[in-house]
Amino acid sequence: MEQRLRELLVLILAFQWSSVFLVAVQGRAFGRRGEEHQCDLYEGSWVIDSSYPLYNASRDCSIIVGEGFDCLKKGRPDHDFLSYRWKPSACDLPRFNGKIFLERNRGKKIMFVGDSISNNMWQSLSCMIHTSVPNTIYNLLQKSKNLMTFLFPEYGIEITWLKNGFLVDVDKDKEKGRILKLDSITSGDQWKGVDTLIFNTFHWWTHTGSSRTWDYFQVGSKLIKDMDHMEAYQIALTTWSSWVDSNIDPSKTKVLFQGISASHVSGKGCLGKTQPEQGAVPPYPGVDIVKNTLRNMSMPVHLLDITKLTQLRVDGHPSIFTGRGASYVDCSHWCLAGAPDSWNELLYAVLIGN
Length: 354
Prior knowledge:
The chain has 354 residues and is α/β, with parallel strands linked by helices. The chain is 28% helix and 18% strand. The chain contains 8 helices and 13 strands. The strands form 3 sheets. It has a 7-stranded mixed β-sheet, with helices on one face. The chain has a 4-stranded mixed β-sheet with strand order 7-8-10-11, with no helix packed on it. It has a two-stranded antiparallel sheet with strand order 1-2. Strand 4 (139-144) and strand 5 (147-152) form a beta hairpin. Mean pLDDT is 90; it is low at 1-37.
């Protein structure tokens, strides 16, 4: 009888240890106690949390948050959009802690490179950190219209947004106008010497008609008046990925790609929307191009895969609350506080989380 009990005890212990091992190897994620288990941070839903928002843009961050993003200040009457947080299906994101973020990034440079959606995320992160340590000295420097840096001198940290909507070159020709060079990057020196790079490009590639910011594409010496915009996007991302693989040392620099932020400019748009959508979402243009590009790189690049969670947040846009009048409806950018705060909680989980 005792022998059978001993055998049973061995089997139970073996099962427990195998379960622990299985949990440990299935992938890193961040649960309530920081344990490792299988969790896709980008699969989940938006839930109301009464402890959100993390800041009041007008009161706490008026020097950081742009006029077009502070929707409450511009008259938005509903408030629920402030209190949603992203909840992964199989775990919880760690709550953002600005002091820990500063300590873990002491002496480092963090740079967002991209368009106004990158600016949206940069403003959110700067405000989240500042609100966490309100008594810490800070400086906001605007070196040019395309370069802004939020400094925390006590920690030696620089958080910069560098405006670059295409990542590849745009040249101006007196005769032909603006030429978007899909296979050329000459501005990359600005990206060197940075500890964490967060790249983004997509929205400018979707522009048509008068909103286009180029007149010709160029590949090699060939000028092209027009081509499929997603084909052009793929060529440009391949150029960017080759530049990163050749110029960035992964032992010195972490590289992330801010995934495609969904807009809601088509159909019924975002006007009057006050709640997130639920359920499955359709494929979104450009996402497969991004994923395939990153998959083929030698440099490890983490994708902040925000597309699905932004597809669901039709309520999160400024809509008519930008200060530009009721005739202007913004269904591309995001209110602050709001959805970009969750992007930065995902960034926090990736960089610091466990």
